[in-house]
Amino acid sequence: MKWLPTSSLIWTFFLASASFVPGHALYISVISVEHEEGGFEAIIQFKIFKDDLNDAIYNESTRRHQMNQLDNTDYQTDIRSYLNNHFNLEVNGIQATIVPESFAIQGDAAFIFCTSAVPAHWNTVQIEATLLYELFPTQQNMIH
After folding, report:
1. pLDDT of residue 90
2. Nearest to 131 by CA among 28, 20, 22
């Protein structure tokens, strides 16, 4: 799976703009939800600052993990639990279950690639993303 170029441009813009504001903390994640009409699977991609994700998981599970341990089963379980508690995708009134498929670290960012079984045709979509809200009151979760 590839991260969409538009998302990368948005992410780069926010990272660059944050570096020009001294003492200003930037709390943002980018979430992409993709579905091909007629397909029974959605692809959900999360891009989150890795230290913020780690702090949020520690806050919820009280287990501290090293970001270079993404192949650790306990860490993957904690990430799954955190995402299921803080991200909700509902299609046609039916709650979709997201399944993390792969994890990656690139620079300061953690990438989490997920899939979800969904209806083939979408009439209504409702998304709730409360990632990192419990830690950062100014957190912004951009969805596209």
Report:
1. 96
2. 28
Rounded Cα gap, residues 74 and 78, in angstroms: 6
Helices (H) and strands (E) in the chain, counts: 3, 8
For 21, which DSSP code?
A: S
Indicate the helix (H) or strand (E) that contains 100: strand 98-106
Give pLDDT, residue 4: 43
d(Cα 99, Cα 19) in Å, to the nearest integer? Answer: 34
Q: How far apart are CA 54 and CA 133, in angstroms?
A: 14
Length in residues, the chain: 144
Who wins on pLDDT, 6 or 76? 76
In the 8-state DSSP scheme, what is residue 121?
S
Percent of the chain with pLDDT over 70: 80
Find out whether 45 and 107 touch, Cβ atoms under 8 Å. Answer: no
The CA distance from 58 to 78, in Å, is: 9
